[in-house]
Design goal:
Residues 15-29 have a biased composition (Low complexity). Keywords: ATP-binding, Nucleotide-binding, Transport. Residues 40-290 form the ABC transporter domain. It holds the Pfam family ABC_tran. The strands form two sheets. Strands 6-7-8-3-9-10-12-11 form an eight-stranded mixed sheet, sandwiched between helices. It contains twelve helices and twelve strands. By secondary structure, it is of the alpha/beta class. It has two domains: 1-30 and 133-207, no CATH class; 33-127 and 209-293 and 303-311, Rossmann fold (3-Layer(aba) Sandwich).
Amino acid sequence: MTMNATRLLRRSRAEAASSGSPSGAAAGAHRPDPGPPPGVRVRDLTVVYKTPLGELPAVGGVSLTIAPGTITGIVGESGSGKSTLALSLLNAVQPPGRIAGGSVEVDGLGDVLRLGGDELRHARGRHLGYVFQAAQNSLNPLKTVGKQVLDLGRSHGVDDLPALVRDARGLLERMGLDGARVLDSHQHELSGGMRQRVGIMLALVLNARLAILDEPTTALDMITQATILRIVREVHKERGLTTLMITHDIGVAAEVTDRLAVMYGGRVVEHGPTMDVLGAPAHPYTQGLIRAIPRLSGDPTQARALPGRPPTLGTLPARGCVFRERCPLRMEVCETTEPPRVAVEEKTVACHAVAARREEHA
């Protein structure tokens, strides 16, 4: 850490000691109350990527509502559009991709897709916190964690930098780390689980109200994974956040989320309360994902892999149902018509077969 950063860290320790409070107790004290957790409303979001075949949709007309104060999970195979959707919430899709249509309304911010320049930069961090899939990608290998906290504070115009460092240290200690040591460390001096927790700290230290976690447990051992999931739940509750978690692991989603959206081919095919989606899946893709989970007990042959392969940008059908090539319930209408959204109790399901069954029982 630079001499300036070291002085600020020492000052934050001294202030915490003189106040008789633990280092994390004053978290957020130098900033006004950020208010209640925001709701998010994604409407008809379309994201395309420029390819030799033209612009192809990675996210196609997605609509999704995230209730304030909830943890919503997005699951699906690799290439289903999960991370692209998450980046769209920050208006951070990079070329050759672009957001071609739709809106992302966040309470207190308005339509994020209409923000630009300094307004968008300040929204990221102050309102929207993002934890990247590979934690090391969010860390500068040439700077200590403490120096990066200071850089973050300066870029967002934080006046009380010692208090910001104190907040960072308190968050790290809340997550079971030696805050002072981590702030003095470079990326290569930290384990994968420690870097993941540093990523969570950097996403939250400016009191962001919407936390977006992209595969927060990827490549971590089971014990570290369980620790990260516990931290996610506790920080979400204690800080009063709205949280979106991207994952390919249904077990992770079942552990922490309140609601679950299942994506395939850039579409949301099923969405509802997590226990309803996992306990009584209605879409054949959701059923296939759950059927493919290996069992720790009983007959291991009960696990069945989904047939075929997930589509790529170049193989996504231009019309009809994107799942039809792998679907056991395929119907003639699936070839030409986009599936309607059907209400099944508290869930919405985009499937012609489900819609046909609903009509039969109406």
